[in-house]
User: What shape does this take?
Amino acid sequence: MEHHRIIDHVPALRRYARVLTGDAWAADDLVQDTLERACRKWLLWRTGSNLRAWLFTLMHHLYLNQRRGALPSPTLDIDTLHEGLAAPPSGTDDALDLERCLLRLPAEQRAVLLLVALEDMPYADAARVLQIPVGTVMSRLARARVRLRELMEPATQAAAPPTALRRLK
Amino acid sequence: MHDSTPRPINDNDLHALADGRLAPQHAQALRERLGAEDTERLAAWELQRERLRTLHAGMAQEPLPEPLRSTAARLQERQDRQTLLWRWGGMAASVLLAFGLGWTLHGQWPPGHTGSATPLASAQRFAQQAAVAHAVYQPEQRHPVEVAAAQQEHLVQWLSKRLGRSLTLPVLTAQGFELVGGRLLPGENGARAQFMYQNAAGQRITLYLGALDGADTGETAFRLHADGPVPAFYWLDQGFGYALSGPLAREALLALATAVHQQL
Assistant: This one.
């Protein structure tokens, strides 16, 4: 049975927003705005249609609007942040590493990868949420996976002996 | 399935494998055909996916902050009400919703002006005008629009100026419709605009918009106007009327109207 209660979707929205924005406060603000907007636009939701995709679509719109409104500096900030955070001994926290690398992906690639992998969303649903053709979902997904792997590699090599990830010929 | 020469494996196959999007049998067959390089790439992507799925996994169990919880509850109430309306109305829901709204969102349709010019009547007339404008310009081969999509920026600036409001052009590419262009039309209370879109099959839809008397508060639900030359879904939002017309099935037209509304 699919989830039909709004509240069932909120934890997933929060988590996705958390990883997408890289900031717990910004994430909860984004989810709050999404729910508020859904309250105003609830007439557009049709019973039986995909509630999860609809909520994610609204959230994605708001996220894009926020980014458009914001100064272009956050990208720079993240990079400097990355430099600053690189100081702690490597391999202390794999998850932190992964999050940091994710934030260095272009936002549109990050969104696709997170919807598909973190949210386990079918490609067609991700296309609907992001309002792009499925072909674009696939090409962004490919770029995101390749790029994330490149970004992760130095970290992985520094940590545990690479097993499946890197096998030299 | 029983091809003697299976097609070469591409990147999308690897993604579908990594994301578990294939039927087990199909996936197994594909895995057996992978070369060393593809196998290695697939393993890396699978590992990547697994690690992504562990990120903030604990948030599923965390209690929700109170503001989120209460907003979600508010939304739930509205959704339940709508579900009820849909159940009663079935396929005629858009019509029922229109009347149901008179009760739910009483204030949103301000009490009628004088005489017969109630907002509802003028909105219906608006939808009729939209459908007629669609029928007039849709068959045009040489001059379907005044300003073509190639001059999109100019089109938006021009019509924004004439309609006295900054307009946004909805993008319907994901739904398979490309912008053809737009034109200026006369309406009851001044200028109106029509944007035309076309899909690969050559089907054309038009978005008709402009200021409308009595539409000055809030927004309304979609209503279906089925009596015109083509069906149209129309709605009011902050003083403007919008109508999307096209020779499509209701469901398809409603989906497009939803996409338009979300972008406005």
Observations:
- Confidence is low (pLDDT under 50) at residues 89-117 of chain B.
- Residues 66-89 of chain B form the longest helix (24 residues).
- The first strand of chain B starts at residue 147 and ends at 148.
- The two ends of chain B are 46 Å apart (CA to CA).
